[in-house]
Amino acid sequence: MSNDLTSSAIAYIKTQFKENSDGHDFDHSMRVYQNAMSIAEHEQPCDTEVVALASLLHDVDDHKLFDTKDNFNARSFLEANNIGKSRADIICQVINEVSFSKNKGKTPSTIEAKIVQDADRLDALGAIGIARTFAYGGKHGRSLDDSIQHFHDKLLLIKDMMNTDSGKMLASERHDFLTLFLNQYNNEVKCTNEIQ
Ligand code: NI
Fold first, then answer.
1. Which of 2, 30, 82, 125 meets the CB 3.0–4.6 Å disulfide criterion with 174?
2. 189 CA distance to ligand 1 middle (Å)
């Protein structure tokens, strides 16, 4: 794979996410890229370049952040970097199949999309998942208990939604850490409730 292309994609998302720190930012995209690369190592054969580019670009047309249609930002980047239309279509299809809200219950159709979706979901688990949940909750005026509810409504369900074997293994470690955190949180809250 051309490292130049990866570096260009990293430079591109750095400019795109300059203004954002809402959990869908540059750091998130880089973590998803790294997760995706480690999963891809264990899920051969797969097209590693497609995994790399789709993971780096997976949020550049997120409707919460950008007012674009038909993967406009991703396509502009790919075209500017001499990626042909048919390959750009493949990469954009991966990106479109990754989105949580657009694909409720649907399994991605290719191994590359399965990998990137797993990589994105992993970033909602473990210590980083906890940090992101409270950062998001704080920004949107949610109480701690409301953020805790989000663990039950969404995060604790992710482990059973993973696609790949290596994704499942990584998710299960991070899931256990969430449970550990929730138990400790509940114990501490119980203590305060007993005093009141
Ligand atoms: Ni994402």
1. 125
2. 31
Instruction: State the pLDDT at residue 196.
Output: 66
**By residue range, what is the domain housing residue 72?**
3-195
Q: How far is the CA of 120 from the centre of ligand 1 (A)?
A: 5
Take residue 102 and report the two structure tokens written for it. Answer: 């657009």
Please tell me whether the overall predicted TM-score, pTM, comes out greater than 0.90 for this model. yes
Residue 190 alpha carbon to ligand 1 centre in Å: 34
CA of 119 to the centre of ligand 1 (A): 9
Rounded distance from Cα 24 to ligand 1 centre (Å) = 6
pLDDT in tens, 109-141: 999 999 999 999 999 999 999 999 999 999 999
Average per-residue pLDDT for the chain? 92
Can you say whether the dihedral through the CA atoms of 123, 147, 159, 108 is positive or negative? Answer: negative
Structural domain count of the chain: 1
Tokens of 15: 């400019």
- The CATH number that applies at residue 113 is 1.10.3210.50
